[in-house]
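User: Good morning. I'm curious how magnesium ion would be positioned relative to this chain. Could you predict the structure with it bound?
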Amino acid sequence: MSTSRAKAFEEVLDREPKFMEEPKRRVSEYFGEFTFHLDKMRECLTEEAYKVVKSAVEHGTPVDRTHADQIATAMKDWAISQGATHYTHWFQPLTGSTAEKHDGFFKPIGPGKAIERFEGDLLVQQEPDASSFPHGGIRNTFEARGYTAWDPTSPAFVIGKTLCIPTVFISYTGEALDYKMPLLKALQAVGNAAKDVCQYFDKNVTNVKPTLGWEQEYFLIDSALFNARPDLVLTGRAVFGHAPAKGQQLDDHYFGSIPERATAFMKEFEYESHLLGIPVTTRHNEVAPNQFECAPMFEEVNVANDHNLLLMDVMEKVARKHNFRVLLHEKPFAGINGSGKHNNWSLGTNTGVNLLQPGKNPKSNMQFLTFFINTIKAIHDNADLLRASIASASNDHRLGANEAPPAIISVFIGTQLTKMLDDLEKNIKAGKMTPEDKTELKLSIGKIPELLLDNTDRNRTSPFAFTGNKFEFRAVGSSANCAQAMTVLNTIVANQLIEFKKHVDTQIAQGEKKDEAILRELQVLIKESKKIRFEGNGYSEEWVKEAAKRGLSNLKDTPRALDVWTQKATKKLFNGLDILNEVEIEARHEIELENYILKLQIEGRVIGDLAVNHIIPAAIEYQNVLLENVEGLISVLGEKEGRKAATMQINNIKAISRHVNELNDLVKQMIEERKKARDMENTRDKAYAYCDNVKTMFDDIRYHADKLEIMVDDDMWPLPKLRELLFTK
Ligand code: ADP
Ligand code: MG
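Assistant: Good morning! Here's the predicted structure, ligand included:
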């Protein structure tokens, strides 16, 4: 954690009024109190400045210098009134977390005198010392630094004594060094493309914005137990630990009430979230013991994503006050469910229509089908990119394992819509359609019930499922920045919608009626994207076989999943829509590989250290107790009788030696492999080596360590066991 993040941690802990002292206000009274949102700006800006900022928020227009000064002053005065003394540009470097650099508002203006100052240029642009943020070779460390620039579409907020201003992070040569910049571009692209397609159905649509409602899963672990597990502290997951006698087989946690201590934590972090304008609404237990989920009302994607990042920070901070630690890792414990972050996604218009919600009549249903089918086609054509967007060392442990979506990307749509698409595929006739054909089609299209939401079948095993009025991308990892997945999803849908419109317009230009042209094009898309649709059990072995037959990819690990970034088609797609250029794509690929390598390197070290310094010594200590016992028995009972009495002890002594030696040998081998991988020059080769030669040894090492855990005297075992971590309330 950077020192600035550590500082922000302390500040939240210090913040007044404390939750417990909060008078009984309703949420509506304090929701968004610590954010500088449009309504607040209206109160303190001139009409003109307000218009400028409103247009920036709603349409992405630029803010000129004069107005920026006025906005900065108003923002500063508001922040100071909330107790802020410092400000920071809050940004999302490619490390995966958020970063801040704090500066004071005050400026000395003579001996013993200072004023509070914050002007437009400080709001709009800042230079953090960025030399240590990853940039994958875009700019070497000796060159000019990057700068951060204000994103007016996401409200500034106050945490503790600091005004945080959401920003993008760009190099001086203009390349994006963060997650937010390409996300904003992708959102713009899909918004424009969707707006253009909407013109076929409703001329009043002038603005379309993608929406995101994430569901955040996490584990809550007692701080003291957490701190006694170096693996949790350093890697976020238990690299060792025998499965507890009771796992999640009873499902009693899912249906149970939330333990009191966890509820106290949740109430407080929800309170803090509400102050920051994060619309958290639901909370419940998840399937695994000590696993929980929270979800907000959906919002426009960029704001929703900032809110998710903020929430992850707030959760961690508040958890410490309750002597908990939050585990956001995708797979902290082998053998029980991991954690995901479902990304519910749709497109909303300025006319208040959800484009993925079936409508009241054939016309609005045609619009629904258009966006629905184009999305499926986009997933079909770009499944590997979508897979790459969720790839990480930690998510690799989860995908395809125990109750998690497989690494195979497929789309689930439910029986009703499957039938609808099958009908469309069959019933759209070649050549001119007769009036009867058309009536029949219209009738059929009109039949999609408006409230699919309540009667869509649920398939929890699909990585990308239609859930009645939105798609739910379930393979996103719990610790991920959703921006990565959202950038890819919105880009591929934008591209598909543009292609769709081109084809339809061509047909119209050739004299085809609009409705028929749309229907025919949809029919083509249904046919072409058929193999990505799967309604069965995504967790099953049969699906793995079936998917292979269909020619769908099953990219099980991150280095292989990331390869798609270097393909020509990927570069063409992102460059064509002006979302990421070739340099940025190469850089991102490199950074992701580096992140992967670093994560595995750390895991490998922790595994080695724990085995050699904790587990083997404990096993030998216990073995000595057994040896003493055997010697004692022999000395009292004589050689033959004594040995007979010590049968179990002697067997255990042998077994311990066997496991200790094998454990030690495997660790040595793993260290050798790690050294070989470490010395490789090429980043991709290195990542592959960590994946194929280092990581593959982790499970074998664990096997012996976990065997020892169940043999050694509980009092002598140096690590809290999974049973304790998972069932301490
Ligand atoms: P569940 O999937 O658990 O039954 P819901 O259907 O109510 O619950 O919604 C789950 C998530 O989907 C919530 O975070 C919600 O905000 C989000 N969501 C609902 N509608 C949309 C939408 N149009 N766009 C994006 N997210 C949405
Ligand atoms: Mg869900």
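Residues 1-6 have pLDDT under 50 and may be disordered. The chain has three domains: 31-178, 187-580, 595-727.
Let me know if you'd like a different ligand tried.
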